[in-house]
Amino acid sequence: MTTPMTETSRGAVTGGVGDSPVRPDGTLKVTGQFAFSSDLSADGMLWGATLRSPYARARIRGIDLTAALALPGVRAVLTAADVPGAGSYGLEVADQPVLAADEVSYQGEPVAVVAADHPETARRAAARIVVDYEPLPPVTDAEAALAAGDIFRHVPVRRGDAHATAEVVVSGVYQVGMQDQAFLGPESGLAMPTVDGGVDLYIATQWLHVDQRQVASCLGLPVDRVRLYLAGVGGAFGAREDLSMQVHACLLALRTGRPVKMVYGREESFFGHVHRHPALMRYEHGADRDGRLVYVKAHIVLDGGAYASSTPAVVANAATLGVGPYEVPNVVMDAYGARTNNPPCGAMRGFGAVQTCFGYESQMDKLAAALGLDPVEIRRRNAMTTGSVMPTGQVVDGPAPVARLLELVRDRPAPLAASGDPREWPGGVANTTHGESVVRGVGYAIGIKNVCFSEGFDDYSTARVRLEMVGGEPVVLVHTAAAEVGQGLVTLQAQIARTELGVERVVVAAADTTVGSAGSSSASRQSYVTGGAVRAACQAVRDGVLARLGARAGPADGLRLAGGMVVTASGVAVADLAEVLGDDPVEETRQWRHRPTHPLDPRTGQGDAHVQYAFAAHRATVDVDVELGLVRVVEIATAQDVGKAINPQAVLGQIHGGTAQGLGLALMEELRVVDGLVRNPSFTDYLIPTILDVPPMTVDVLELADPHAPYGLRGVGEPPTISSTPAVVAAIRAATGLALSRVPVRPEYLTGAV
Amino acid sequence: MRVSCRVNGEQREADGVWPGESLLYLLRERLGLPGAKNACEQGECGSCTVYLDGLPVCACLVAGGQAQGREVVAVEGLTGPDGGLDRVQHAFLQAGAVQCGFCTPGLIVAVHDLLARVSTPTDADIREALAGNLCRCTGYEKIMDAVRSAAAMPPSTAAACPASRPGGPR
Ligand code: FES
Ligand code: FES
Fold this sequence. Notes:
The complex is a heterodimer. Chain A is an alpha+beta fold. Chain A folds into three domains: 37-137 and 186-233 and 240-272, Aldehyde Oxidoreductase, domain 3 (Alpha-Beta Complex); 279-454 and 599-751, Aldehyde Oxidoreductase, domain 4 (2-Layer Sandwich), CATH 3.30.365.10; 460-593, Aldehyde Oxidoreductase, domain 4 (2-Layer Sandwich). Chain A is built from 17 helices and 31 strands. The longest helix of chain A has 28 residues, at 526-553. Chain B folds into two domains: 3-75, Beta-grasp domain (Ubiquitin-like (UB roll)); 87-162, [2Fe-2S]-binding domain (DNA polymerase, domain 1). Chain B is globular and about 45 Å long. At the A-B interface, helix 1 and helix 15 of A face helix 2, helix 3, helix 4 and helix 5 of B. The complex binds FE2/S2 (inorganic) cluster (2 copies). One FE2/S2 (inorganic) cluster (FES) is lined by residues 38-41, 43-48, 58, 60 of chain B. One FE2/S2 (inorganic) cluster is lined by residues 38-41, 43-48, 58, 60 of chain B.
């Protein structure tokens, strides 16, 4: 159940900005025809497999390939010695080996790759490779790594008086376990050698051009001989921002001269991508008697694992967003990313803002309890608003409806009491209770997220737009390299073209590297940046059409395109597109950038580092069986400001999906790592929410335009993931009275067994 | 070995099948039908759900050889011969129940089966029936909407699916 969004004005075309047209890839997806990266095949195709380290840390004394090569059907077995170009890659620092040479630094690190004519042959050959390891003691404790100076980045933020004191002080230590993106479509792709000695790679990724740059560098090829084509992406959530099998498949294809496909199984997928950073956070909040924050001190340690990935940027998010959407005059914040021999961690939806939100929102509830205040009231009293100053000194210049979002979720009617259907109790179909020992609780949380890339990064997208007559009808072609990962970006690009050019028929070309970079499908940025690029290219095409017309009909002031015509500002038709275009298309390519951001001062953390801030609030209602430690989330209410809902249905989809991932972190999702070894790399043991775990969700969407963003929009994808975790935990605390300082909350935390 | 079976209404044969290959591999890699998906290959996600003799199964848990002489219907077979969508496919498309779409083929078969057994399921029935189908993108809210709206449409006549079995546990 959802509230209708505010009515939006519609142009003459249907399926434009503000509508929810059916996704252009939707029919293929419901009929099984859509080609995901794991569905591809080619004549003469071989299958690749990867041998990975069983140790968290070990020296490699030697590798014997004899037995693997002897297996019939094996076409190539490659090690680090076979990598022709750079031996390492990485998003921010090229520190991750393509294949480990002398030492392995985490369990699952790739050591060798095999190509064979059947996937099982390839796997068996990999198993026959003999690696002589000398195990070394792994560093698995992030705080110990920090003490030893093994850090990827430290971001301090200092604001106001570091020695401020307050009447009421609460402190706490909070922990977040390692969450996995757990997209359903496994890492996979198909590499095809080309006649020019290069390679074509069909791949599921979040950012074609950053992959292209890294793959070309490792292959020792010029960038233009490595062409990437986006294959169907089965979800991403950050896990496809780093390379997985890209270089490996290309190496095997170039060595064998044959197409090579690699598809990870689910277990391998858990080793094949980065995870959300586990966090250890110490917070101290000081407030006056009215509950107004005087200061926040925080010490945040994120475990980056063995390689840098995007840890430096995640640390910056944790530091700059780590006091939440509140006005805090005095801040002493230190966030660190530690290097250990645990699995590498990097991008996951919410990117550093998720962990800290669990910390600061737990603290706000503690403060409310200390003062005898209502949890919504304490947040309202401290809520930032337009004009508030972040701990970095950046002024929040867009809408910041923090108090209003809290009020929206608070004022939603409470969900009904359990109906008596035993499936509605905690334990559900397992029939573990008929209501005895079940207690209900309600909790609130709100979070803040930066949208787009920050800290002075040159963050842009490119769009090529062509308007032409096809079969007597005007048609728009939109071509970008932006990765559709499920979020609906292909739909949105077509909507923008329809609105800007007044043409119903829009074709969104497949994304590839033959057009300029679109940047990453991450940081909730594609609607903003690729949306901005498509709009800019469409406007250039419109100007081209008007210029052609102008050559014949005088000044083009106020003219626009609508319904396949050129019309005046008041809608009077001036010319038909067919007649202006003839056989000669108008095509334009535009690069588009958001307003610049700036680096943080490395000592004080001051700087206008972020482009846009986004907010979502949650209210969670839970039933807890306090005897068995089972939790059932009864309902979650969300309120979020999206600036402008370009596609209202897709906005709700993001909010529902993001909220569910936050629920997963609250209650069940943790990759358990013991002594550097992953204990649960399967969907049997790493649990993601099922349809029985996710409750009905109500959503209130605000559309408060951001004057800096295209159409006033605000990034949507991440904010709902951030605050659902602390809201669910707050609800469990309300039901049980327990302190609960670690997520995911395990049943034994609730039964007193721990 | 050779495996012959009816798939989506057509008699099909595959040669050189290894005893260890699953029905999912047989469909995807030997018969060129990648509609059923491979999200876990451990029976945990339901993305590979197909009908085997009218019963929904996880194709990753069935050996390819077990399909010998039997009837398989995957998501491709629910579309009418004219390409018309089944009501479940139509409802998923309209409701916004499809994001990345990797869970979609398995869910559509599972919902098709549910509605053949229970024409007007309650929300609790829907959740119980789909508990074995993971979706990481949608939070299931629009999937619930899609099932409710499919149930309100008349059953499609076009599907190549054999008459579904009577009720009972999966
Ligand atoms: S692939 Fe068969 S259940 Fe997941
Ligand atoms: S739509 Fe992506 S897993 Fe369901």
